[in-house]
Protein backbone atom coordinates (compact mmCIF):
# COMPACT_ATOMS: atom_id res chain seq x y z
CA UNK A 1 0.00 0.00 0.00
CA UNK A 2 1.62 3.21 -1.20
CA UNK A 3 -0.07 5.30 1.49
CA UNK A 4 1.41 3.13 4.25
CA UNK A 5 4.88 3.38 2.75
CA UNK A 6 4.53 7.16 2.49
CA UNK A 7 3.58 7.32 6.17
CA UNK A 8 6.55 5.11 7.00
CA UNK A 9 8.93 7.39 5.12
CA UNK A 10 7.50 10.44 6.88
CA UNK A 11 7.74 8.72 10.26
CA UNK A 12 11.39 7.73 9.81
CA UNK A 13 12.25 11.36 9.15
CA UNK A 14 9.89 12.98 11.65
CA UNK A 15 10.09 10.70 14.72
CA UNK A 16 13.61 11.78 15.83
CA UNK A 17 12.50 15.40 15.54
CA UNK A 18 9.40 14.74 17.63
CA UNK A 19 11.53 13.16 20.35
CA UNK A 20 13.74 16.23 20.52
CA UNK A 21 10.81 18.66 20.47
CA UNK A 22 8.98 16.99 23.34
CA UNK A 23 11.80 15.66 25.50
CA UNK A 24 10.95 12.01 24.85
CA UNK A 25 14.02 9.76 25.25
CA UNK A 26 12.83 6.98 22.96
CA UNK A 27 9.83 5.73 21.01
CA UNK A 28 8.69 2.82 18.86
CA UNK A 29 5.78 2.88 16.42
CA UNK A 30 4.07 0.23 14.32
CA UNK A 31 1.32 0.85 11.77
CA UNK A 32 -0.46 -2.06 10.12
CA UNK A 33 -2.82 -1.98 7.14
CA UNK A 34 -4.07 -5.37 6.04
CA UNK A 35 -1.07 -7.68 6.12
CA UNK A 36 1.47 -4.87 5.69
CA UNK A 37 3.34 -3.32 8.61
CA UNK A 38 5.63 -0.33 9.00
CA UNK A 39 7.85 -0.23 12.09
CA UNK A 40 9.95 2.75 13.18
CA UNK A 41 11.95 3.37 16.35
CA UNK A 42 14.17 6.24 17.44
CA UNK A 43 16.01 7.57 20.47
CA UNK A 44 17.29 5.58 23.43
CA UNK A 45 15.81 3.09 25.88
CA UNK A 46 17.57 4.76 28.81
CA UNK A 47 19.48 8.01 29.00
CA UNK A 48 21.74 6.33 31.56
CA UNK A 49 22.93 3.60 29.19
CA UNK A 50 22.39 5.17 25.77
CA UNK A 51 21.09 1.87 24.38
CA UNK A 52 19.34 2.58 21.09
CA UNK A 53 15.61 1.98 20.73
CA UNK A 54 14.84 -0.48 17.92
CA UNK A 55 11.75 -2.13 16.49
CA UNK A 56 12.58 -5.17 18.64
CA UNK A 57 12.65 -3.17 21.89
CA UNK A 58 9.96 -3.88 24.48
CA UNK A 59 8.11 -1.04 26.19
CA UNK A 60 5.55 -1.30 28.97
CA UNK A 61 2.02 -0.89 27.61
CA UNK A 62 0.33 0.02 30.90
CA UNK A 63 -3.45 -0.09 30.82
CA UNK A 64 -3.57 -1.29 27.22
CA UNK A 65 -3.07 -4.59 29.08
CA UNK A 66 -6.72 -4.34 30.13
CA UNK A 67 -7.88 -5.19 26.62
CA UNK A 68 -5.77 -8.35 26.67
CA UNK A 69 -7.24 -9.25 30.06
CA UNK A 70 -10.74 -8.60 28.69
CA UNK A 71 -9.95 -10.85 25.73
CA UNK A 72 -8.93 -13.69 28.06
CA UNK A 73 -12.31 -13.29 29.78
CA UNK A 74 -14.19 -13.22 26.48
CA UNK A 75 -12.44 -16.41 25.38
CA UNK A 76 -13.93 -18.05 28.47
CA UNK A 77 -17.33 -16.55 27.60
CA UNK A 78 -17.00 -18.10 24.14
CA UNK A 79 -16.21 -21.47 25.72
CA UNK A 80 -19.31 -21.22 27.90
CA UNK A 81 -17.26 -21.17 31.09
CA UNK A 82 -18.01 -17.57 32.10
CA UNK A 83 -21.29 -15.65 31.72
CA UNK A 84 -21.15 -11.89 31.24
CA UNK A 85 -24.16 -11.15 33.41
CA UNK A 86 -23.31 -13.62 36.14
CA UNK A 87 -22.40 -12.16 39.54
CA UNK A 88 -18.67 -12.09 40.15
CA UNK A 89 -19.30 -14.20 43.26
CA UNK A 90 -20.22 -17.07 40.91
CA UNK A 91 -16.48 -17.44 40.31
CA UNK A 92 -15.12 -15.68 43.42
CA UNK A 93 -17.42 -16.66 46.31
CA UNK A 94 -18.15 -13.85 48.74
CA UNK A 95 -17.26 -11.01 46.37
CA UNK A 96 -19.40 -7.86 46.50
CA UNK A 97 -22.36 -7.11 44.21
CA UNK A 98 -21.11 -6.74 40.63
CA UNK A 99 -21.30 -8.67 37.38
CA UNK A 100 -18.54 -9.68 35.00
CA UNK A 101 -19.93 -7.27 32.39
CA UNK A 102 -19.81 -4.38 34.86
CA UNK A 103 -16.15 -5.08 35.59
CA UNK A 104 -15.34 -5.17 31.88
CA UNK A 105 -16.98 -1.79 31.13
CA UNK A 106 -15.99 0.01 34.36
CA UNK A 107 -19.48 0.33 35.84
CA UNK A 108 -19.08 -1.76 39.02
CA UNK A 109 -18.96 1.37 41.16
CA UNK A 110 -16.37 0.50 43.80
CA UNK A 111 -13.11 2.38 44.42
CA UNK A 112 -10.95 1.60 41.42
CA UNK A 113 -7.40 2.57 42.37
CA UNK A 114 -6.18 0.00 44.88
CA UNK A 115 -2.49 -0.71 44.26
CA UNK A 116 -1.64 -2.88 47.28
CA UNK A 117 1.53 -4.89 46.71
CA UNK A 118 0.83 -8.48 47.75
CA UNK A 119 4.16 -9.89 46.72
CA UNK A 120 5.66 -11.56 43.68
CA UNK A 121 4.29 -15.07 44.17
CA UNK A 122 1.64 -16.80 42.10
CA UNK A 123 -0.81 -16.20 44.96
CA UNK A 124 -0.55 -12.40 44.70
CA UNK A 125 -3.86 -11.92 42.86
CA UNK A 126 -5.78 -14.18 45.23
CA UNK A 127 -4.37 -12.30 48.21
CA UNK A 128 -5.12 -8.94 46.56
CA UNK A 129 -8.78 -9.79 45.88
CA UNK A 130 -9.22 -10.97 49.48
CA UNK A 131 -8.26 -7.44 50.63
CA UNK A 132 -11.05 -5.68 48.70
CA UNK A 133 -13.89 -6.23 51.19
CA UNK A 134 -13.35 -2.80 52.77
CA UNK A 135 -12.98 -0.86 49.51
CA UNK A 136 -15.68 1.87 49.37
CA UNK A 137 -18.64 1.61 47.02
CA UNK A 138 -18.92 4.96 45.18
CA UNK A 139 -22.20 4.34 43.35
CA UNK A 140 -24.73 1.62 42.60
CA UNK A 141 -23.33 -0.97 40.16
CA UNK A 142 -24.33 -0.36 36.57
CA UNK A 143 -25.41 3.27 37.00
CA UNK A 144 -22.39 5.13 35.58
CA UNK A 145 -18.86 4.80 34.19
CA UNK A 146 -15.80 5.26 36.38
CA UNK A 147 -12.44 3.90 35.22
CA UNK A 148 -11.52 1.02 37.50
CA UNK A 149 -8.07 -0.56 37.69
CA UNK A 150 -9.10 -2.75 40.60
CA UNK A 151 -11.95 -4.31 38.63
CA UNK A 152 -9.49 -5.60 36.04
CA UNK A 153 -7.39 -7.24 38.74
CA UNK A 154 -10.57 -9.03 39.80
CA UNK A 155 -11.13 -10.12 36.19
CA UNK A 156 -7.59 -11.47 36.12
CA UNK A 157 -8.37 -13.51 39.22
CA UNK A 158 -11.51 -14.90 37.55
CA UNK A 159 -9.34 -16.03 34.62
CA UNK A 160 -6.94 -17.74 37.04
CA UNK A 161 -9.70 -19.55 38.89
CA UNK A 162 -11.55 -20.77 35.80
CA UNK A 163 -8.37 -21.78 33.94
CA UNK A 164 -6.75 -23.25 37.04
CA UNK A 165 -3.36 -21.64 36.48
CA UNK A 166 -1.61 -18.32 37.19
CA UNK A 167 -2.66 -15.25 35.22
CA UNK A 168 0.75 -14.91 33.53
CA UNK A 169 0.49 -18.48 32.23
CA UNK A 170 -3.00 -17.77 30.90
CA UNK A 171 -1.71 -14.72 29.06
CA UNK A 172 1.12 -16.66 27.48
CA UNK A 173 -0.81 -19.84 26.66
CA UNK A 174 -3.93 -18.18 25.28
CA UNK A 175 -2.60 -15.01 23.63
CA UNK A 176 1.19 -14.71 23.28
CA UNK A 177 1.91 -18.18 21.91
CA UNK A 178 -1.11 -18.57 19.59
CA UNK A 179 -0.55 -15.09 18.13
CA UNK A 180 3.21 -15.43 17.71
CA UNK A 181 3.92 -12.57 20.10
CA UNK A 182 7.60 -13.44 20.51
CA UNK A 183 8.62 -10.17 22.20
CA UNK A 184 5.99 -10.00 24.94
CA UNK A 185 7.06 -10.04 28.58
CA UNK A 186 4.80 -10.58 31.58
CA UNK A 187 7.33 -9.27 34.10
CA UNK A 188 10.86 -7.85 34.49
CA UNK A 189 12.34 -11.35 34.48
CA UNK A 190 11.04 -11.89 30.95
CA UNK A 191 11.62 -8.31 29.80
CA UNK A 192 15.34 -8.51 30.61
CA UNK A 193 15.68 -11.12 27.85
CA UNK A 194 14.96 -8.35 25.33
CA UNK A 195 16.03 -4.74 24.74
CA UNK A 196 13.81 -3.20 27.43
CA UNK A 197 12.83 0.45 27.70
CA UNK A 198 13.17 2.22 31.03
CA UNK A 199 10.67 4.88 32.04
CA UNK A 200 11.88 8.44 32.66
CA UNK A 201 10.52 10.88 35.25
CA UNK A 202 11.57 14.53 35.19
CA UNK A 203 14.06 13.66 32.47
CA UNK A 204 15.85 10.96 34.47
CA UNK A 205 15.54 7.16 34.36
CA UNK A 206 13.11 5.91 36.98
CA UNK A 207 14.59 3.97 39.88
CA UNK A 208 11.66 1.53 39.67
CA UNK A 209 10.82 -0.39 36.48
CA UNK A 210 7.37 -1.76 37.27
CA UNK A 211 4.50 -1.55 39.73
CA UNK A 212 3.15 -4.45 41.82
CA UNK A 213 2.50 -7.85 40.25
CA UNK A 214 -0.90 -7.90 41.98
CA UNK A 215 -2.00 -5.24 39.46
CA UNK A 216 -0.66 -7.08 36.40
CA UNK A 217 -4.12 -7.70 34.81
CA UNK A 218 -4.75 -3.94 34.97
CA UNK A 219 -1.40 -3.01 33.42
CA UNK A 220 1.37 -2.84 36.00
CA UNK A 221 3.98 -4.96 34.18
CA UNK A 222 3.22 -6.14 30.65
CA UNK A 223 5.79 -5.11 28.04
CA UNK A 224 6.08 -5.86 24.34
CA UNK A 225 6.96 -4.43 20.94
CA UNK A 226 4.45 -2.42 18.91
CA UNK A 227 4.61 -5.26 16.36
CA UNK A 228 3.31 -7.72 18.95
CA UNK A 229 0.49 -5.40 19.93
CA UNK A 230 -0.49 -5.17 16.25
CA UNK A 231 -0.70 -8.97 16.14
CA UNK A 232 -3.22 -8.75 18.98
CA UNK A 233 -5.15 -5.97 17.18
CA UNK A 234 -5.27 -8.00 13.96
CA UNK A 235 -6.87 -10.87 15.87
CA UNK A 236 -9.66 -8.49 16.88
CA UNK A 237 -10.12 -7.38 13.29
CA UNK A 238 -10.30 -10.96 12.01
CA UNK A 239 -12.16 -12.77 14.82
CA UNK A 240 -15.94 -12.31 14.56
CA UNK A 241 -16.33 -13.97 17.96
CA UNK A 242 -14.69 -10.92 19.57
CA UNK A 243 -16.80 -8.27 17.82
CA UNK A 244 -19.03 -8.01 20.90
CA UNK A 245 -16.13 -6.34 22.71
CA UNK A 246 -16.54 -3.23 20.57
CA UNK A 247 -20.28 -2.88 21.11
CA UNK A 248 -21.13 0.14 23.32
CA UNK A 249 -21.99 -0.80 26.90
CA UNK A 250 -22.00 2.59 28.63
CA UNK A 251 -21.83 6.18 27.40
CA UNK A 252 -18.86 8.20 28.64
CA UNK A 253 -19.12 11.58 30.36
CA UNK A 254 -18.29 14.56 28.16
CA UNK A 255 -14.61 14.76 29.15
CA UNK A 256 -12.80 14.58 25.81
CA UNK A 257 -12.40 10.81 25.90
CA UNK A 258 -14.19 8.42 23.58
CA UNK A 259 -17.93 8.22 23.04
CA UNK A 260 -18.58 4.98 24.92
CA UNK A 261 -16.91 1.97 26.51
CA UNK A 262 -17.33 -1.57 25.26
CA UNK A 263 -16.22 -4.83 26.86
CA UNK A 264 -12.64 -3.67 27.35
CA UNK A 265 -12.33 -1.27 24.41
CA UNK A 266 -12.73 2.50 24.49
CA UNK A 267 -14.90 3.47 21.52
CA UNK A 268 -14.43 6.64 19.46
CA UNK A 269 -17.04 8.01 17.08
CA UNK A 270 -14.65 9.92 14.80
CA UNK A 271 -15.36 11.73 11.51
CA UNK A 272 -14.05 8.74 9.54
CA UNK A 273 -16.16 6.19 11.43
CA UNK A 274 -15.73 3.88 14.41
CA UNK A 275 -12.30 3.61 16.02
CA UNK A 276 -11.57 1.50 19.07
CA UNK A 277 -8.50 1.41 21.26
CA UNK A 278 -6.95 2.00 24.66
CA UNK A 279 -4.25 4.14 26.27
CA UNK A 280 -1.75 3.11 28.91
CA UNK A 281 0.65 4.76 31.34
CA UNK A 282 3.08 3.26 33.82
CA UNK A 283 6.19 4.60 35.57
CA UNK A 284 7.50 7.00 32.93
CA UNK A 285 6.23 4.93 30.00
CA UNK A 286 3.12 5.31 27.86
CA UNK A 287 1.37 3.47 25.06
CA UNK A 288 -1.54 4.04 22.74
CA UNK A 289 -3.39 1.62 20.46
CA UNK A 290 -5.98 2.63 17.87
CA UNK A 291 -7.81 0.23 15.56
CA UNK A 292 -9.90 1.29 12.55
CA UNK A 293 -12.05 -1.66 11.45
CA UNK A 294 -13.39 0.12 8.37
CA UNK A 295 -9.84 0.43 6.99
CA UNK A 296 -8.34 -2.78 8.43
CA UNK A 297 -5.83 -0.49 10.13
CA UNK A 298 -4.08 -0.42 13.52
CA UNK A 299 -1.54 1.96 15.09
CA UNK A 300 0.61 1.37 18.20
CA UNK A 301 2.82 4.11 19.67
CA UNK A 302 5.11 3.51 22.66
CA UNK A 303 7.25 6.10 24.52
CA UNK A 304 9.43 6.15 27.64
CA UNK A 305 9.20 9.66 29.09
CA UNK A 306 8.98 13.35 28.31
CA UNK A 307 5.72 14.80 26.97
CA UNK A 308 4.32 12.10 24.68
CA UNK A 309 0.86 13.60 24.09
CA UNK A 310 1.75 15.98 21.24
CA UNK A 311 3.99 13.32 19.70
CA UNK A 312 1.13 10.80 19.69
CA UNK A 313 -1.32 13.38 18.40
CA UNK A 314 0.83 14.26 15.40
CA UNK A 315 1.42 10.63 14.46
CA UNK A 316 -2.22 9.64 14.90
CA UNK A 317 -3.25 12.70 12.90
CA UNK A 318 -1.34 11.36 9.90
CA UNK A 319 -3.39 8.18 10.02
CA UNK A 320 -6.78 9.13 11.50
CA UNK A 321 -9.13 12.08 11.17
CA UNK A 322 -9.04 13.33 14.76
CA UNK A 323 -11.68 15.58 16.32
CA UNK A 324 -10.85 19.23 16.89
CA UNK A 325 -9.45 20.23 20.28
CA UNK A 326 -12.08 21.55 22.70
CA UNK A 327 -12.23 25.34 23.06
CA UNK A 328 -14.03 27.38 25.74
CA UNK A 329 -17.51 28.69 25.09
CA UNK A 330 -17.43 32.42 25.95
CA UNK A 331 -21.22 32.45 26.33
CA UNK A 332 -21.24 29.71 28.97
CA UNK A 333 -22.43 30.65 32.46
CA UNK A 334 -20.79 28.75 35.30
CA UNK A 335 -22.92 27.58 38.22
CA UNK A 336 -20.35 28.09 40.97
CA UNK A 337 -22.61 26.80 43.72
CA UNK A 338 -23.09 23.50 41.88
CA UNK A 339 -19.39 22.99 41.18
CA UNK A 340 -17.48 24.39 44.17
CA UNK A 341 -16.33 21.91 46.77
CA UNK A 342 -13.71 19.28 47.54
CA UNK A 343 -13.75 15.95 45.71
CA UNK A 344 -11.67 12.97 46.80
CA UNK A 345 -10.53 9.53 45.74
CA UNK A 346 -7.70 7.30 46.94
CA UNK A 347 -5.35 8.88 44.40
CA UNK A 348 -6.16 12.56 44.64
CA UNK A 349 -7.97 15.50 46.21
CA UNK A 350 -9.43 18.22 43.99
CA UNK A 351 -10.72 21.52 45.32
CA UNK A 352 -12.91 23.81 43.24
CA UNK A 353 -13.37 27.40 44.45
CA UNK A 354 -14.91 30.66 43.21
CA UNK A 355 -12.82 33.81 43.55
CA UNK A 356 -14.02 37.35 44.21
CA UNK A 357 -14.36 38.03 40.47
CA UNK A 358 -16.64 35.04 39.95
CA UNK A 359 -13.99 32.88 38.30
CA UNK A 360 -13.73 29.17 39.10
CA UNK A 361 -10.41 27.60 40.05
CA UNK A 362 -9.48 23.93 40.30
CA UNK A 363 -6.58 22.76 42.43
CA UNK A 364 -5.54 19.10 42.31
CA UNK A 365 -3.23 17.36 44.78
CA UNK A 366 -2.12 13.78 44.03
CA UNK A 367 -2.36 11.31 46.89
CA UNK A 368 -1.15 7.80 47.57
CA UNK A 369 0.48 5.90 44.75
CA UNK A 370 0.09 8.72 42.21
CA UNK A 371 2.13 11.03 44.43
CA UNK A 372 4.72 8.29 44.95
CA UNK A 373 5.04 7.83 41.18
CA UNK A 374 5.84 11.48 40.62
CA UNK A 375 2.49 12.95 39.56
CA UNK A 376 2.50 16.69 40.17
CA UNK A 377 -0.31 18.80 41.50
CA UNK A 378 -1.61 21.77 39.56
CA UNK A 379 -3.94 24.75 39.80
CA UNK A 380 -5.93 26.11 36.88
CA UNK A 381 -8.87 28.33 36.10
CA UNK A 382 -11.93 26.55 34.69
CA UNK A 383 -13.74 27.87 31.62
CA UNK A 384 -17.19 26.99 30.33
CA UNK A 385 -17.39 24.38 27.56
CA UNK A 386 -20.49 22.20 27.24
CA UNK A 387 -23.13 22.04 29.95
CA UNK A 388 -21.63 20.71 33.16
CA UNK A 389 -18.34 19.90 31.42
CA UNK A 390 -15.69 22.60 31.93
CA UNK A 391 -12.24 23.18 30.44
CA UNK A 392 -9.05 23.74 32.45
CA UNK A 393 -7.40 26.87 31.08
CA UNK A 394 -3.90 25.57 31.81
CA UNK A 395 -2.65 23.47 28.85
CA UNK A 396 -2.18 19.74 29.22
CA UNK A 397 -5.36 18.97 31.15
CA UNK A 398 -8.56 17.58 29.63
CA UNK A 399 -12.16 18.58 30.33
CA UNK A 400 -13.79 17.77 33.66
CA UNK A 401 -17.47 16.97 34.21
CA UNK A 402 -19.62 17.65 37.28
CA UNK A 403 -22.23 14.91 37.61
CA UNK A 404 -25.07 13.88 39.88
CA UNK A 405 -26.64 15.77 42.77
CA UNK A 406 -25.83 15.69 46.46
CA UNK A 407 -29.43 16.48 47.41
CA UNK A 408 -28.73 20.21 47.77
CA UNK A 409 -28.26 21.13 44.12
CA UNK A 410 -24.50 20.56 44.10
CA UNK A 411 -22.60 18.07 41.97
CA UNK A 412 -21.92 14.78 43.74
CA UNK A 413 -19.04 13.75 41.46
CA UNK A 414 -16.14 15.43 39.72
CA UNK A 415 -15.45 13.19 36.73
CA UNK A 416 -12.08 13.11 34.98
CA UNK A 417 -12.45 9.52 33.78
CA UNK A 418 -12.81 8.47 37.40
CA UNK A 419 -15.69 9.67 39.53
CA UNK A 420 -14.25 11.46 42.56
CA UNK A 421 -16.84 11.95 45.31
CA UNK A 422 -17.71 15.28 46.90
CA UNK A 423 -16.49 15.43 50.48
CA UNK A 424 -19.35 16.02 52.95
CA UNK A 425 -19.71 19.05 55.17
CA UNK A 426 -18.42 21.71 52.80
CA UNK A 427 -20.82 24.33 51.40
CA UNK A 428 -19.58 27.02 49.05
CA UNK A 429 -20.70 29.28 46.31
Automatic annotation (TrEMBL):
Pfam families attached to this UniProt entry: Beta-lactamase
Keyword Hydrolase: yes
Keyword terms of this UniProt record: Hydrolase
Enzyme class: hydrolase
Stored InterPro entries: AmpC-like (IPR050491), Beta-lactam-related (IPR001466), Beta-lactam/transpept-like (IPR012338)
Molecular function per GO: hydrolase activity
Enzyme Commission number(s) of this protein: 3.-.-.-
Record keyword DNA repair present: no
Source taxon at top rank: Bacteria
Domain Beta-lactamase-related: 12-315
Alphabetized PANTHER family for the sequence: BETA-LACTAMASE-RELATED DOMAIN-CONTAINING PROTEIN (PTHR46825:SF9), D-ALANYL-D-ALANINE-CARBOXYPEPTIDASE/ENDOPEPTIDASE AMPH (PTHR46825)
Protein's recorded name: Serine hydrolase domain-containing protein
Species this protein is from: Streptomyces fildesensis
Lineage per the UniProt record: Bacteria, Bacillati, Actinomycetota, Actinomycetes, Kitasatosporales
Amino acid sequence: MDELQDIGNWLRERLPQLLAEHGVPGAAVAIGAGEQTVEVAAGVLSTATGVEATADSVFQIGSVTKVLTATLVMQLVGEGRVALDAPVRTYLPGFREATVRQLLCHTSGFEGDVFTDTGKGDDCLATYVDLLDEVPQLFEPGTMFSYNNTGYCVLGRIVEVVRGKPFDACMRDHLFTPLGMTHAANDPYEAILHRAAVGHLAGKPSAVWAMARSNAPAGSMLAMTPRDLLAFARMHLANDGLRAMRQPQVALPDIGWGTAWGLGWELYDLPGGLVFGHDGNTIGQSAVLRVVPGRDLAVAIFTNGGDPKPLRKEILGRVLELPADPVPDPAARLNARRYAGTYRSSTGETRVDEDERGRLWLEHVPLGVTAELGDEGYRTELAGWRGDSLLPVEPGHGPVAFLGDDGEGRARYLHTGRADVRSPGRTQG
